[in-house]
């Protein structure tokens, strides 16, 4: 039996969101377009042509959403700032955007909620993308200036910062595969984007810590436990490469270990973009790392994939239980990832900043009986506890996400929320999983 108190009184329980996925209010109060505003206009990029011009209308409905967080007894609320509301095209500060995030922050504090702020959750201004976006090294100063504005305006109230959200996903899906904004493809986009994101990750940390020495400064990483298809040495080597790509690429440079070139030789192409001193610039001593885990991956050797010679075996081919994202439900993955990251000497503290699942939900007579999500959260939280008991410095857990929202290229199809969103009426209905999480947090139920 595990109850909330078994994690310790200081363990941070929370829920995570991101600006573009919930805010809506596209173009309101002089917001400039982001790469996602632009990408969602392009034909064939998003499931059924969905867009996020309204999303959950959090821009207007935030008072009721923050009430919901409080009513579910969730003490920590993670959200992201949109660069496009804060910085104008001429690089001046948009006071209306600042005023909006002030309302959110004050709204959190008035309700006794602790705000956790992500500076960059994938929505770079389109006018910067027109200058090359993440592939242009100037982004180090563009980003640095944006970070300083955030620190200056919000640092009096925000004690927990995350510089970036899942750089592997926004550079991999956005600059290599082209399935996310800005839809660029190939190594010639990916490698410079990766290097500049790595530099910005550390630079953001440095600027925040310099301006706000008392604040807790971290950054988040996507990760999946990787296993080889079987014991053959070829598949094992493939698993090492995929693991390096998915789980080590952005972490290790921040720890001063450089890129994992030894395991992924194609990364040596980054040399073209490296300048003297970059190895040091890529490193920053973060107070914590945010671990975001949903599934595990199975890797195999493949002749079909040039350069890497490794690929993933999709969950559908393996006939395992999956979520609507076609991600395997595999609770031990989070345990393995916490153990793996906890074993790096320089990783001081870990928060699970995202974990959750999309399943088919139906609203029937005012209720969403999402048993599978309840079980998913139950089983993953139990694995977090297992890692903690074995000495991993994991100090928090945040569910992805508060309410069903815009799931990037998948549009509104996958529902991840603890709260059901009716996207026609903007009505919200707390799902059974929301009540389950509340009851767990209120210590009315335990994990068995
Ligand atoms: C990772 C991302 O941070 C978030 O934006 C996304 O919605 C969830 N995982 C689910 O895919």
Low-confidence stretches: none
Percentage of residues in strands = 15-25%
Number of helices: 16
Cα-to-Cα separation, first versus last residue: 4 Å
CATH superfamily placement: Glycosidases
Order of helices and strands: EHHHEHHEHHEHHEHHHEEHHEEEHEEEH
Heteromolecules bound = 1-deoxynojirimycin
CATH architectural arrangement: Alpha-Beta Barrel
User: Strand tally, please?
Assistant: 13
Shape: globular
CATH class: Alpha Beta
Q: Helices and strands: which structural class? A: alpha/beta
Alpha-carbon Rg, integer? 21 Å
Average pLDDT, rounded to a whole number, is: 98
If you consult CATH, what is the topology? TIM Barrel
Helix percent reads 25-40%
Strand arrangement across the biggest beta sheet: 1-2-3-4-5-6-8-11
Task: Tally the structural domains.
Answer: 1
Largest sheet: 8 strands, parallel, barrel
Explain what the structure shows.
- The protein has helices at residues 19-22, 35-39, 58-71, 83-86, 95-110, 126-129, 139-154, 167-176, 187-211, 233-248, 251-254, 278-281, 315-318, 332-342, 371-389, 432-441; strands at 12-16, 76-80, 114-120, 160-164, 216-228, 288-301, 310-312, 350-354, 363-364, 367-368, 394-400, 419-422, 427-430.
- Strand 9 (363-364) and strand 10 form a beta hairpin.
- The mean pLDDT is 98.
- The radius of gyration is 21 Å and the shape is globular.
- It is of the alpha/beta class and 448 residues long.
- The protein is 37% helix and 17% strand.
- It has one domain (11-233, 245-299, 331-356, 376-407): Glycosidases (TIM Barrel), CATH 3.20.20.80.
- The structure holds 1-deoxynojirimycin.
- 1-deoxynojirimycin (NOJ) binds next to loops.
């Amino acid at each position: 039996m595990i109850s909330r108190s078994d994690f310790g009184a200081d363990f941070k329980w929370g829920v995570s969101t991101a600006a573009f996925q919930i805010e809506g209010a596209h173009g309101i109060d002089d917001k400039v377009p982001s790469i996602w505003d632009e990408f969602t206009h392009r034909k064939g990029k998003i499931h059924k042509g969905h867009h996020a011009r309204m999303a959950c209308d959090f821009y207007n409905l935030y008072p009721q959403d923050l009430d919901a967080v409080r009513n579910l007894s969730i003490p920590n609320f993670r959200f992201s700032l949109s660069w496009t509301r804060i910085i104008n095209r001429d690089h001046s500060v948009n006071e209306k955007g600042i005023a909006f995030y002030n309302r959110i922050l004050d709204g959190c504090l008035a309700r006794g909620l602790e705000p956790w702020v992500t500076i960059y959750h994938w929505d770079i201004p389109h006018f910067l993308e027109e200058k090359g976006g993440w592939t242009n090294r100037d982004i180090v100063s563009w980003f640095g200036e944006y970070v300083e504005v955030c620190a200056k305006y919000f640092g009096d109230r925000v004690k927990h910062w995350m510089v970036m959200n899942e750089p592997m996903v926004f550079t991999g899906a956005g600059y290599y595969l082209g399935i996310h904004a800005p839809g660029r493809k190939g190594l010639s986009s990916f490698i410079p984007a990766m290097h500049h994101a790595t530099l910005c990750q550390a630079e953001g940390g440095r600027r925040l810590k310099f301006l706000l020495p008392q604040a807790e400064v971290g950054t988040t990483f996507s990760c999946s436990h990787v296993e080889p298809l079987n014991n053959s040495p070829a598949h094992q080597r493939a698993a090492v490469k995929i693991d390096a790509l998915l789980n080590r690429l952005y972490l290790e440079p921040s720890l001063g270990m450089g890129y994992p070139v030894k395991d992924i030789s194609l990364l040596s192409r980054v040399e073209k973009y490296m300048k003297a001193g970059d190895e040091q610039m890529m490193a920053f001593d973060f107070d914590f790392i945010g671990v975001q885990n949903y599934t595990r991956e199975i890797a195999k050797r493949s002749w079909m994939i040039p350069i890497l010679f490794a690929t993933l075996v999709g969950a559908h081919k393996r006939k395992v239980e999956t979520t609507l994202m076609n991600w395997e439900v595999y609770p031990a993955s989070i345990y393995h990832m916490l153990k793996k990251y906890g074993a790096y000497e320089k990783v001081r503290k870990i928060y699970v900043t995202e974990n959750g699942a999309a399943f088919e939900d139906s609203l029937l007579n005012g209720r969403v009986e999402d048993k599978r999500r309840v079980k998913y959260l139950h089983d993953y939280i139990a694995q977090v506890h297992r890692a903690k008991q074995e000495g991993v410095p994991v100090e928090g857990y945040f569910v992805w996400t508060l309410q069903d929202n815009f799931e990037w290229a998948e549009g509104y199809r996958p529902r991840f929320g603890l709260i059901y969103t009716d996207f026609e009426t903007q009505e919200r209905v707390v799902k059974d999983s929301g009540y389950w999480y509340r009851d767990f947090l209120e210590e009315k139920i335990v994990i068995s």
